[in-house]
Amino acid sequence: MVSIQTSSIEKKDNLSVYNLNYPIIKSDNEKNIINHINQRIYEDIIAFKSAIEDIESIKNNNLFCINTDYYITYNNNGIISIPIEFSQLDGLYNISYINSYNYDINLEKEIDIKDVFNSEIDYMEIIAKKIDNKIKELSRELSIDKYIMVLDYLKDIIFSDNPTFYISKDGIVICFSSYELDSSISDLSTFKISFEEDRSYLSNYIIEKIIDI
To answer: CA 94, CA 187: separation in Å to the nearest integer?
Structure first.
């Protein structure tokens, strides 16, 4: 198990409020992978900050509030998972997205979504089923117009071969950004692949390293 320290970048003036919190990983056994993870996280934080500053220089007199929050969702057996939420309030509009950093420290490798699933499984089909089930649940609460709108949004989503995910104690959580789905629909931005219910879909690597330890 590694330890985590919090670092931050803060700024406040008449038109800008920045509160960028990010983790720094510490370990008694310093490996190159630790430095790689810390550098990657820091570069992503700085890239986010720079992008907002570029927008600020164009949009005069707009209030910009940006922040980042991170969570340690798994840290055991040499495996660490850290999702970081990047949020931007531009005027009246709130945009957020999640980057996730999933690593096997002992093997000194990043954990890819393909490492999670049995190689015989079409993992995008499994994710699509989870989305469909969530929509069916929400359909009980939504008007017909809203339900149709959500379906249209989902049809427009183009899944990459490596969707954003993080590891939790009881499953793998797939994440979507607010601009990919309708932000007015709550409880639709994450979908869990349960270790208990979906074990047959999972790779031996995940079963041995996380579930059966």
So the answer is: 16
